[in-house]
Design a protein that fits this description.
Layout: H1 2-5, H2 10-35, E1 39-50, E2 64-74, E3 78-85, H3 86-96, H4 109-134, E4 138-140, E5 144-149, H5 150-162, E6 167-177, E7 181-190, H6 194-198, E8 202-207, E9 211-217, E10 221-227, E11 232-238, H7 256-269, E12 278-283, H8 299-313, E13 317-323, E14 329-334, E15 340-343, E16 349-351
Parallel strand pairs: 12-13
Antiparallel strand pairs: 1-6, 2-3, 2-4, 2-5, 3-7, 6-7, 8-11, 9-14, 10-11, 10-12, 14-15, 15-16
Helix pairs in contact: 2-4
Length: 352
Amino acid sequence: MAEDVLELSAMQMDALREIGNIGAGNSATALSQIINRKIDMNVPKVAIVPLGDVPDLVGGPDAMVAGVFLRVYGKAPGSILFLMPKESAFYLVDTLMGKKHGDTHTLDFMDESALMEIGNILAGAYLNALFHFTKLTLLPSIPALAMDMAGAILSVVLVQLGQMGDHALVIETEFLSEDDGIKGHFFLVPDPGSLETILMADYKVGRGSATIISYGLGSCIGITLYDAETRIGGLLHIMLPDSTQARSNENPAKFADSGIPLMMENILSMGGSRSRLVAKIAGGSQMFTFANATDIMRVGARNAIAVKTILKDLRIRLIAEDTGGTYGRTVQIDLNTGIYKIKTIDKGEKEL
């Protein structure tokens, strides 16, 4: 687990923040539809936190909270814990059951079922958004509910999670209704190896009839290099521009400065010609607009600039690109023709 979360760079954290914003936004929309009133959502914090410090995020170990816990199954397994202060849980129950606000002081079986369903819907909405971002199919377990001191609830959950890791990726959300505040703390704890899958970076090379696909490019960039005469080429999915700025650079395919030369050398070793190589690129989106954005928040634009600079330094011609925008892309290259196909959810398809 340590290699998953403790060595994440600031730019990788930004990519996770982007995922968290998408997921939490989806969850807030779902909650708004359930209670039939406007919900505003803030995502004030995304952090890597020691498991022992998690209770402090919800008011301390003695704070009374309702907790809904779910396991996540699929290619990037993990755990989700949704915590609400007691007052927020009662407010939700009153809203869902058509009661006057302030009527609920304890939870009966129906109230507990309603809160578990809320947790289930919010987790499902979050994971559905994660699917659209990463194309990873992730399924939640049946939810479990407890209402008690935050430390007591978390101790049971964290004992299970502590067998897999010592830190949690924490996305702390605040839901604000039109009349009363509903606070919720959303915790995502990936299993070992899951962050590598979520923040997938890799490359593949081949020849002839092969088709290579990379799913769910947001701020990442998909770079193709292709030799039309030999029909040898490859597709690289990079996350970040510069390996020298990362604390962990064991996977050179994550970075533009190390991934592009690596893929080029593999293509040349298969019989491709450097003089005939041409490049096409896609991706580099700005998925969210930040009020106080700095350069470090503009990962997509920085990736695009770095890729173009490196291609120029390697004297590889860039003959087509589809970069920027505010939407995700899935890309594939047909090595028989060199056609680079780009698919989006709302912008249709195109070929480069």
